[in-house]
Write a structure and sequence with these properties.
This protein is an alpha+beta fold and 283 residues long. Helix content is 24%, strand content 31%. Strands 1, 2, 5, 6, 7, 8, 9, 10, 11, 12, 15, 16 and 17 form a 13-stranded mixed β-sheet that branches. It has a two-stranded antiparallel sheet with strand order 3-4. A two-stranded antiparallel sheet has the order 13-14. It is globular and about 65 Å long. The two termini are 12 Å apart.
Length: 283
């Protein structure tokens, strides 16, 4: 296992609007998505900037410049940092459920890519195998899941067949052991693996879309043209990624990691209305 790589997990405590700018579509301000899959992501550039700002203080400028790079706006000559961040990919999407209020939904492709990537980075994966059986309208749940009754599972408007699965239980336990240490059952009993096709559908239809307006100061009525729609990833979403130490840093990295201890950050836009608060877990 490499000591030059750490896994990073994000747990959204409030909806996250990590956007791509304006779009010519029904949603004026969409979230960032992977090109190939269409699944939500948080770009590495957004995460790096937020972490730099969150960890900076009056006493650690030297470490900040080493880890994140020198700011070319204030320095005579810029210099790349030694921390290399990956995009944060969706790991579990919270989805409205008829039983159990909501589910932490994921799919085989998400889990397979997580295992593959962690092995490539030299990080021990939290689990080794992804179970078969989450195909079509069939879903896998944990033993005693609150999401299923009588073998049926209802996510958003989807009617799915549910089956308890031992490997699904192991994956849920492993994720809960890292991300929900205080109350692991709150996660495991809501964990579900759906098919890749169902997950695609949920990533399109289960996002939050909020209407925003701007009022005229004098009349408190909506200004002409000041109505727009913003998309956000729902609260309780889970993301995963990694941070690597660049090859040009040839010293032992323990001191770098000891000072890299983020806990709560704000990602994306609309911070003044509570958007983007995320819990950070380094593993």
């Amino acid at each position: 296992m490499s000591d030059r790589v750490k896994a990073i997990y994000l747990h959204a405590l409030t909806p996250v609007h990590s956007g791509t700018g304006q779009a010519v579509a029904v949603v004026d301000l969409p979230i960032a998505r992977e090109k190939a899959t269409g699944w939500p992501i948080i770009p590495a550039s957004s995460l790096k900037g937020v972490l730099r700002d969150a960890l900076s203080n009056d006493n650690n400028k030297g470490w900040i410049d080493l880890a994140f790079g020198k700011d070319v706006r204030s320095e005579e000559q810029g210099e790349a940092g030694v921390f290399c961040f990956t995009d944060q990919r969706i790991l579990c999407l919270p989805v409205r459920s008829y039983f159990g209020t909501f589910a932490y939904a994921t799919c085989p492709l998400v889990l397979q890519r997580l295992v593959r990537d962690m092995r490539a980075f030299g990080v021990q994966p939290l689990f080794d195998a992804v179970p078969a059986g989450a195909e079509g309208m069939n879903a896998l749940v944990t033993k005693g899941s609150t999401l299923a009754k009588g073998g049926k599972l209802y996510l958003e408007d989807l009617d799915l067949s549910a089956k308890e699965d031992e490997q699904t239980q192991k994956i849920a336990n492993a994720l809960a052991g890292k991300l929900f240490t205080e109350n692991p059952r709150s996660f495991t009993e809501r964990f579900v693996i759906v098919s890749d096709e169902v997950f695609n559908f949920l990533c399109e239809t289960a996002m939050e879309v909020a209407a925003r307006i701007r009022l005229k100061d004098e009349t408190k009525t909506v200004e002409t043209g000041a109505l727009w729609y913003e998309e956000a990833v729902p609260a309780e979403s889970l993301f995963s990624g990694a941070v690597l130490i660049a090859d040009h840093y040839r010293r032992e990295p323990t001191d770098l990691w000891n000072k890299f201890q983020p806990s709560l950050i704000q990602l994306g836009g609309n911070s003044t209305v509570g958007r983007g608060l995320c819990r950070v877990v380094i593993a």
